[in-house]
Each structure stands twice: as C-alpha cells, then as structure tokens.
Amino acid sequence: MPLAEIKTNVQQKMTASIDALKNNLTKIRTGRAHPSLLDHVHVDYYGTATQLSQVANLTLIDARTIGVQPWEKNMIAVVEKAIREADLGLNPATQGDMVRVPMPALTEERRKEMVKLTKVEGEAAKVAIRNHRRDANEQLKKLLKDKEITEDDDRRTQDEVQKTTDKFIADIDKLLAQKEEEILKV
C-alpha cells in the first residue's frame, strides 16, 4: 500500500468521523426549533417504517415551533403519535391539517446536561480520530518491517498523519464550542 493511499485513507476516515459527530450534534436539542430534530422519527406508513420527512412537510412556524404537515390527512394521528413516542421530550398538538411541535424551554440544569452530552459525543469522535491515526501508524510499521519504505518515509508520513489528526481534533473542538454556545444561549 503506497504512502499516498495511507494518507488519503486516513483523511477519508477522519472526515467520516467528523460527519458522524455533526450528525450526532444535530440530535441534541438547543431550545430552538429545527426541523432536523425530527430526522430520526419514523412513522408507520401503510405497514412500512418510513422517515417523517418522506410523508410530510417539515417547516418552522416560529423560533420555537416546528410545523409538520402530512401529505395525507389520514396520517395526522399517526405522525403525532410517532413524534410523541420518539423519546425527544416533545409534545405535538394537532391543529387542523397540521401537527404543531412546540419546543419546551430548556432549564439551566437541562442546558448543562446537554453540554455534558455534547462533550461526551465530542470525546467519542476524538477517540475515533485517534484510532484512525493508530491504524495508519500500524500500516506504516508493517511497511517498514517488510522493507517496502525507508525509515525517513515512515517518520515523514507519521508526522503528516499526526498533523492531520491535530487538525481534525481542532475541528472537533471548534464544533463543540459552537454547539455549547448554541445550547447555553437563552
């Protein structure tokens, strides 16, 4: 495996870890309404578990309310039940042909819990990044042992992998700081 391939592989895996972190951070409530909070809600659509966004329009009514308008009127009760049972702490209410999902205000204690949860997610992402670095370094050691690369190439590539790791760890710290600020903003 050439050195360029190892570096590219590590870069791709670390990018995937960052994307997973971003996805996980969108699930953490900030007190403001955001349609992506309902991305993981599935409804029973004629016997098939279907994503809510596939059976309804998701809109922001105001800063604290999400509007869910099912495309079929008979889906209103099913959508409301799915949101209520999604364990998001939301209490939807039907209003005509729309389901309104108000975001409850977060208490200071709950905000601190959310920040802790954010830090746990960030630490998990950092561990994943470090694991990718370790895997790349093991590949380099194997190449060096098999005498496919020189010690200079090994050292140089390890330094590059470490710089990539440091960059991604800094990106994670930046994402966590933004999310923490978003959560603590009243």
Automatic annotation (TrEMBL):
It is found in: Cytoplasm. The keyword Cytoplasm applies. GO terms for cellular component: cytosol. Keywords: Coiled coil, Cytoplasm, Protein biosynthesis. InterPro entries: Ribosome_recyc_fac, Ribosome_recyc_fac_dom, RRF_sf. CDD domains: RRF (cd00520). One of its GO terms (molecular function) is ribosomal large subunit binding. Residues 126-153 form a coiled coil. Belongs to the RRF family. Responsible for the release of ribosomes from messenger RNA at the termination of protein biosynthesis. May increase the efficiency of translation by recycling ribosomes from one round of translation to another. NCBIfam families: frr. This is Ribosome-recycling factor. It comes from Formosimonas limnophila. The gene is frr.
